[in-house]
Amino acid sequence: MMPLELENIVKTRGSGRHAVEVLHGVTLAVGAGEFVLLKGPSGSGKTTLLAVGGGILTPEAGVVHIGGYRLHERSRAEDRRRRGAAVGFVFQRSNLLPHLTVRENVLLMGRIAGQSAGDTLSQAEELLERLGLGALGRRYPRELSGGEEQRVAVARALVHRPGVILADEPTGNLDGKSGQAVAESLAALARQRGAAVVVATHDPRIEPFASRTIRIEDGKILQ
Amino acid sequence: MLRLLLKSLRGRPIRTTLAIAGIATCTLLVIVISSVLRGVSTSMAGYIGQEGFDVWVTPRGADNLIRGSFVSFIPLPYLDSLRAVPGVAVANPVLEAFLPVSFPRGNDPNLRLTLITIGYVLPHGLGGPPVYSEGRPPRRRDEVALDRAAASRFSARVGDTLDVSGYPEVITGITSGTNLLVTQFLFVGYEAMARGSNAQGLASFVILRVLPGAEGSRVAAAVEERFTLFHAYTRERFLATNEREVSSGYIPVLALIAVLGAGAAMLLVGLLILSVIDERRGDIAVLMALGAGTPSLSRGILAHTAALSAGGACIGIALAWALSRILDLALPTVPMVIAPWEVAGIAVLFTVTGMGAAIAPVLRLGTIDPLEAFRS
Predict the structure, then answer these.
(1) CA–CA distance, B354 with A9 (Å, rounded to integer)
(2) Quick one: closest CA in B to A82, which residue?
(3) What is the pLDDT of residues B107-125, one digit of tens each?
């Protein structure tokens, strides 16, 4: 079984007369070490697909498997525990918690994922070092540049060794050089760890790292 | 994880400081009221519970010091009969009344205090003050001992002359532990008191000291058996009836203020945490998207409110302690006695009510959509 499998996903947003079907029977499987680009116009359903794939949204129909575990069959607490451990997220904004230092932001993800404190600490130190952030561990997000913040977000997404990494426009707010550095870091670390990566993006700088590109329009996968 | 969650949910410093200050003020308010009541009770116990005040004989209906000054009297000829009761070593009369007292040569000649005035057999008869903080007991009929708080209000010192019901009386001693907040004790000789209150030959109470080995309860029972017009109370029973008289007026007010104080503190904490939740909505959405569950976030919020409430309560306790020391030195008219178990109870009350304030913020978590984390 692949790290991420979605079968015939139907997802509606809104309710009653305002309900809109955002995903129409989407099927997608991403293997270990794959780096999949998800491309499509705004409102095509990219973010909704990531949220369903990451277990944040529950589809009206279809099946989601993360790391072999079928979501939405057991309790919400169990789903949350499993997806927390198996999925890493990178958002368009870094979304670092402003009152936590760089190191604490990364450590918190490990703790949410149920990782031991010692393991989380050694992983965090290693990742921050490899991302060129080793000296910034005690700084707060406000003291970082946009590129540094987003690299911390990459470290946060990887610290618990997830099998699946879902990224939504991770370079969307970054200048050319910073965007390139973040894309390189994400691709290299994910490949090295054998994680399945899905990146929703319009950014052509990420394309060279992709092993596969998928287009989505009006809630349907085209290729 | 809780530590990191707690840190990540921290509010703005000024708002947090103000909320903690508000809780501290509410705690201080409740502790002050409670310790003032305790101070009054302690003064009452300090006077009535003195060594040798074994049995209090009272006219019927006069079961405490307040009522003793209004109801009726014990004629002095009964003293010999009381002394004849088996087990009685000493029987001394005490005459008590609320008398107007002024200090004509003081800073405020117009200030008149109505003091609970105790006339007892000078110089060492039963009924005198428990502790002298300054000076000596009165020895003559024109000498008095005045409570420290009353002396402070008059700005009077040992050697000054008071006007007690129109008679000049010289202060020879300043007493402590004799402040009942609304009034204070003044100790005079029995003779002067009888003259000042036109109650010659009468006693409000008779205090008995029992012989070594004799039991106060047996002596009290024997007195009641022989003298059907009088009641006799052991020291403990008389103290209890006095405390009941004091607390019946204070307890409802104290309880009301405690409830209002705790309620105000709860509102403060609730408002602060709600504002933190609203202000940090985006961060909480991120935490939820990353996999932090509502239970762990709720625990973080509860821990945050508990920390705020407990912090405020601790500061309130420290302020109350400091205030009691300052009042004791600068304004002894407000007696404050801080009882550790009572303070601990108040701290627990404020912490628990503060945590109750977390209910609304915890419910607010349910309105946060983790998808907000994806919005740029």
Answers:
(1) 45
(2) B291
(3) 788 899 999 999 999 988 9
The residue-averaged pLDDT of B65-86 equals: 85
pLDDT of B362 over the 90 cut: no
Which chain A residues are Cβ-neighbours of B292 within 8 angstroms? 84, 112
How many helices, marked H, and strands, marked E, lie in chain A?
6, 10
- For B217-243, give one letter per residue: b (16+ CB within 10 A) or e: bebbebbeeebeebbbbbbebbbbbbb
Q: Which CATH superfamily is domain A30-55+73-221 in?
A: P-loop containing nucleotide triphosphate hydrolases (3.40.50.300)
Closest CA to A198 of A107, A92, A88, A118: A88
- Interface predicted TM-score (ipTM) of this complex, two decimals: 0.90
Q: Does B311 touch chain A (CB under 8 A)?
A: no
Torsion of CA B153, B154, B159, B163, to 10 degrees: -130
- Say if strands B202-203 and B74-75 run parallel, antiparallel, or are unpaired: antiparallel
Token digits of residue B40: 């009054």
Nearest CA in chain B to A103: B4
What is the rounded distance in angstroms from the CA atom of residue B118 to the CA atom of residue B94?
Answer: 7
Which residues of chain A are within 8 Å of residue B8 when distances are taken between CB atoms?
Answer: 97, 99-100, 108
CB A138 within 8 A of CB A103: yes
Nearest to A160 by CA among A95, A87, A76: A87
| Among the listed residues B58, B82, B55, B57, the one whose alpha carbon sits nearest the alpha carbon of residue B70 | B58
B185: Cβ contacts below 8 Å, ≥ 6 apart:
B47, B115, B116, B117, B118, B129, B147, B150, B175, B178, B179
**Lookup: tokens for B221:** 């029972």
3-state helix, strand, coil in chain B (%, to 5): 55, 20, 25
Q: B interface mutation test: which of A11, A48, A56, A57 has the most B CBs within 10 A?
A: A56
CB contacts of A97 in chain B (<8 Å) are: 8, 283, 286-287
The pLDDT-based confidence of B180 (bands split at 50, 70, 90) is confident
Q: Copy the structure tokens of residue A77.
A: 């607490």
Interface test with A, best of B4, B298, B365, B375 (most A CBs within 10 A): B4
Domain boundaries, chain A: 30-55+73-221
| Average pLDDT value for chain B | 87
Single-letter amino acid, residue A17: R
CB contact residues (below 8 A), chain B span 264-303, against chain A: 282-283, 286-293, 295-296
Give the residue from chain A lying closest to B12, CA to CA: A99
> Which contiguous run of DSSP H or E holds residue A7?
strand A4-13
Closest CA in chain B for residue A99: B8
Residue B58: exposure state from Cβ atoms within 10 A (0-12, 13-18, ≥19): buried
Token duo for residue A49: 């697909």
Selected for mutation to probe chain B from A104, A105, A108 (highest B CB count within 10 Å) is: A108
How do strand A212-217 and strand A35-39 relate by DSSP bridges? parallel
